[in-house]
Amino acid sequence: MVGDTGMNVEVRNKQTAAEQAASDQFAAVSGSLPGTDAVAATRAAAIRRFTEAGLPHRRIEEWKYTDLRGALRELPAPAVASDTPIGPDTLGEIDAWRIVIVDGGEPRLPDGLAGQGITVERLSEVLAAGVLEAEWPEGTPSAMLDLNTAFVASGVTLRVPEGVHVDKPIHIACVTTVPDAASIYLRNSVEVGAGGSVTVAETFEGPDGIAYVVNTATRVTVARDAQATWVKVQRDGNKAVHMATLASDVGQGGRLTLAPYTTGAALSRNQFAIAFAGEHAEANLAGVHLLCDRQLGDTTLFVDHALPHGTSKELFKSVLDDEARGVFQGKIIVRQDAQKVDGRMMTQSLMLSERAEADNKPELEIYADNVQCGHGATSGRIDEDLLFYLRARGIPELAAKALLIEAFVGEAVTAIGNEAIGEALSELTHEWVSRHSHQEPGS
Amino acid sequence: MTAYLEIKNLHVKIADEDTEILRGVDLTVNAGEVHAIMGPNGSGKSTLSYVLAGKADYEVTEGQVLFLGEDLLEMAPDERAAAGLFLAFQYPVEIPGVAFMTFLKAALNAQRKARGEAELLTPDFMRMVREKATALNVTQDMLKRPVNVGFSGGEKKRGEILQMALLEPKICVLDETDSGLDIDALRLVSEGVNALRGPERAMIVITHYQRLLDHIVPDVVHVMSAGRIVKTGGKELAHELEKSGYAAFTEAA
User: Fold this and answer.
1) Which residues touch B171 (CB under 8 Å, ≥6 apart)?
2) ipTM above 0.90, yes or no
3) Which of A270, A277, B72, B140 has its CA 20 to 30 A from that of B238?
4) Which residues of chain A neighbour B96 with C-beta distances below 8 Å?
5) Residue A238 in domain
6) Of B53, B108, B114, the CB nearest to A392
7) B87: nearest CB among A383, A392, A404
8) Are A394 and B87 within 8 A, CB to CB?
9) pLDDT tens, residue by residue, A353-376
């Protein structure tokens, strides 16, 4: 916990290069960012907060395992929008309504989506109408969200009207093609009206070898008896830094599934929050980290059970190779009025290397007296008995390992509950595993 | 004619420990023969089955095992399986996340590939599984579930025999297949095993109890004690043991 000792009275070092760059860049581009005066004021407030607090570092409890200040040496300037045509992407040939955003440019919208009864707006239109969300719930405010608020110019806002069930997933493909380091800011949101349902898959990908930065912020609002599944597939390039903030709330009788699947970027942080806005609501998190080399993947979740009869389930699976680090922090608050809450959190790590590291931090804060909450964390190597059983049936060692790793990840993928997306993610897992089911020398 | 399996003076200890578990086992099994190995707990029966299948926890310190004339101990576990050796596990492990059907297909096709045969097409494979599963009362539901997860003791053993029927090995090692089975399950499993007997296949049936051997009638019975085979006889030896117990043989060792 953060104490009140002198250590935390901010003995600020002087601004880092990245922090200085943020102020300089804001001064240079703020005049040309889209939005009304009200939007400009929100942006200015955000950059002030950022400048005062600076980037988070390991002395801040929630950032203990992910030293963003140390890792983000430079903050590249905002990317210039690109017209690059985009071919087959992360989810392959999945049948979906596809929205493509390249290098933070204007979203390219598919024909026919409007015919579904959905409202689709580009963020630039929303900003022109004077709206830039400034109120973010507990668990989401951070320096990375402030940067997003200051600079963001692209994204989509989806509204699914009452009772509308979108016939196939909406895929928001966020593709980076920058030739040099650049920062890409995005803000997407979906609101599902009462009794409606939608599945959205947000995917991120970009080139290896370029130190670009993706900073994305997302709102998911699930009204009464509505259902939303939000899948986030992060396959950014191996030198990229990926920062994501997601705030969600789920109304009475509603159901929300969040599925972060992380396999890209040198460093990534998912800062997710789920708030219960009605009784008898259900929220699920089905997460995956597939990390290798010196990658760091951090998923930090805040679940706020403010109301009774809520159910939250988290299943998080990490597969860590080489010197990779997987961080999962999950905090569940059950407030005093939130009786009969059922909260279950399970994190499991499969270590393919002795040098990999899994940091799991479950935190339960329970103020109600009639609840069921539990958490569990496991971490281990591939089970030798299972491996022997498969080999005794004729399956060669590498194939047997791959089968076991895919099965391990598959439990979380299945929990997403969408067959087409599940198959696409299984295929991604298979590709990753094919490259990482080797035997570590000397083990 | 080459013996299917020839074990010569096999000495085995647990890796990283000094205790010798097998202390000079000699055993020859020919095509078409069914051998039973009986013996008290701790006599080395299960160790022998694991060593034959290639489990890594053991170290062979002396002796030789020839499988169809080839050096078995030089082969990896999956190579042994592809060459036609099958171990029916005493405790089949649960594999969460891998559907039984997927596993069967992966195993069969891996073996076919290793032997240079074409992989089976899915419809042909499904037909083959359905046929053999029905005979063993393995339900469609079991085939869809993850391997052995939530299976009863009887279901696990039927699952082992289904694998054996599908993979059509040359030599089957059954490690206490009767353990945890009630009378009906024992009959069903035994029928499954008997259906696989044939001139081109040999079996080693490891058991504590004579009752399994009422169903799977062996050609040869061996008594194992303290890491050696101490007596060999016909099927009547099993009945003799049931009456007199293992004590006489344990002392003889």
Assistant:
1) B4, B5, B29, B67, B84, B85, B86, B201, B202, B203, B204
2) yes
3) B72
4) 407, 411
5) yes
6) B53
7) A392
8) no
9) 999 999 999 999 999 999 999 999
